Structure prediction request, 271 residues.
Amino acid sequence: MARRPVASHPKLVHTRGDLRGPDAQRALTGVDVLWHLGFQLWRQRAGAEPEGTNVAGTTNVVSARPGRIVFASSAAVYGAWPGNRLPLDETVTPRPNPECPYASQKLEAERICADAAPSIVLRICAVLGAHADPAVRRASAGYRRVVPAATGVRQAVQFLHEDDAADALFEAGMSGVTGCYNVATEDWLEPEQISDIAGGRVLRAPLRVLVTGAELAYRVRLLGFGADRAVLLGGPLALDPARAREDWGWQPRQASGDVLRDFLGRHSSRR
Prediction:
């Protein structure tokens, strides 16, 4: 069930429609396992806001009463805070940054899924690859020019290859386990390491300046994101994926540095 058409396959029935509409509920009624991957990451300059898809869409599809749910959540639910432990494991209480509604919506969607059926929630770090969201590709490619960093705050990010993310989603659905699991690389990158890979200069500024500047740039259409994404520079946001390996055997094949290096190389060659 998706808005975009997908490749034809004799065992696949594709229903094209909106997750918030009756077509989604009819198409998904009574499925054994629901992989709920639908979300809206970016704010819209005009049209539907993310809450409609992220919360109302989730409520609608789980009302189809699936037997089990695999939900693609986000590392952002933990919040980027200066005091974050490094790395974050699943015992840490999620605390989304107020400036990032997407993170709060994901956390609410986690609750909706858990209340509706036995669920496994995957809190996934940033995903890169040939099929990455265009805005994510542009933002990551921007590291070739500048690597923004907040003054006086340690930062740590992870980049997961899309194939590793796909494997995690599939294996989670086959595992039968429930609960929340981090899905991320075992390593992470700090601004200087990103700079070494991408070639961009590390630009440090107070967090409030970065957040305010990003929001102004978004409003005048210089950036595809605003304060909602810039606030994630407020502290280390690297996840510990050990529990997924221990409970259902998933582990990534590529490290964050390799994923970013490969992505930037391919992106540069396409340009």
